[in-house]
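We treat protein structure as text, and this decision shapes the records that our systems exchange. The tokens are whole numbers drawn from a learned vocabulary of local backbone shapes. Below, we set out a record of this kind in full and without editing:
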Amino acid sequence: MNFNIYNSVILAGVIQGLIFGAIVLLSKKYRHISVYFLVTIIVTYSLNNLQYYLVDIGLINYDEFYRNYYFPWVELTPVLLYFYVVSFLFPEKKINRKAKWLWSLFGLHFLVSLLYKVLIRVESTSKDIDYLTGSLRYYSAYYAELVTGLFSICILIVLFFKIKNYKNLHTEFLQNYIRLELNWLKITLFLFLILTILNVTLVVTDMQLFEDISYYPVWILLTLIIYWLGHIGVYKYGIVQERKSIRKNRKTESSVKQESKTKHIIIERLKQFLEDEKRFLDSSLTLDKTAEALELSQGHLSKIINTELGISFKDYINALRVEEAKSYLKDEDFSKYTLVAIGLEAGFNSKSAFNSSFKKITGETPSQFKQKHIN
């Protein structure tokens, strides 16, 4: 048996992936088509790694593997990834019928592997049959992975355009719509793209040189990226669902009403824009955008805020967000929601920004404030 640190890491990932998939699928909290696609990616990738792990440790040899056990699990990954991202970005849309043709590549590889398993068992003296059998074996060993890699690269490029399209469609702030933060997804897909290109390069090199090439580094990194996508994807879905629930239970009366210290007409317009229209809840709101909405120059608006209110625009808007968050943290109806979801709903773009601004203004962390008022 060929046990080493690399295939031990792979085996640990397989076990973790299968357990993770089972837990999420059995949970009532994550019943959504995007999560199902995501978990299926984890499970199928784990099964693919498991079959190659058995070969790598020497439990079965390659001839026996392709004759009896090989299944093109990995060919499912790019298609499942496509459907996951699309259903996550646009949950209200049904899957396009044309997109279902993406499954055809997996169907082709499955038929090739099945035909090889049948022909290898046929006793024939025909050279044509032998040649076909050998070609199918070579295709399963090399070309299937190469074609899948190239297909994955195309899918990833399409997904970057899908993300760009999503951003173009959701540039405006809407109180009744949760605009997704997608930097984590773009970074994950970019890393996946780089590693896929590297894996394709290794396959091409292997086909040309017929030398032993170590796939361990790429294999392990791809596995880590896939599992990372699974964990962060499920986590992000949970946060979105919490935010939807918070909005559903949010009091219709505004929780933020700053006492006016001035009768300056521009400040009154600013307060109406930020407080009455609740634009401070827009995490992407900037001084520049606010000035544009009020038809003022950025410098002029900044000077008026500093002169009339005695604070910067950033501190003013963060104060509004902290007051919004405090209204949730003091209310037992919102005690079941995570601090991350509350911070995002209050207009902050991250947990760290929420914590630092909250402590700066109140002298306490959100968790300390919540514990004091709820308990």
In short: Residues 127-169 form the longest helix (43 residues). Residues 10 and 354 are 37 Å apart (CA to CA). The chain has a mean pLDDT of 88.
